Amino acid sequence: MTRADVIAAVLRRSVLERPLLGSELGERLVQGLGPRSTVVEWTATVPQLAEAVDRALVKADAAMPGSVAVGHALVVEYQGRDLVGTCQCGRRLGRIDARTRLDALTVPWIQHTTRDLAAAAAAHS
Fold it and tell me: The pTM is what?
């Protein structure tokens, strides 16, 4: 499921944390109409709708470890005399001597961000 799919699902049937308040009726409102009708299925303020979309995206990201929202930057840190490589998502990529070329960490990172993430996405499709 793509992020656009998650947003579309929220717009089709928005689940709001709180009801619309009377004081908010003077603000901009968004309404979800039923398919091929003028029946209002839900009404929300723009902040309410943004909160609902944000919650749905956070939930979708949590359901798919290693998703784009988590981030996949290569992180290289000194530990003693060694360099330790990890992905921003937490995947450990290796430990090398500080004199070793960084390719020893970038190659596993590239494999992780291309092959491993593609396999995880295909498994969740």
Answer: 0.45
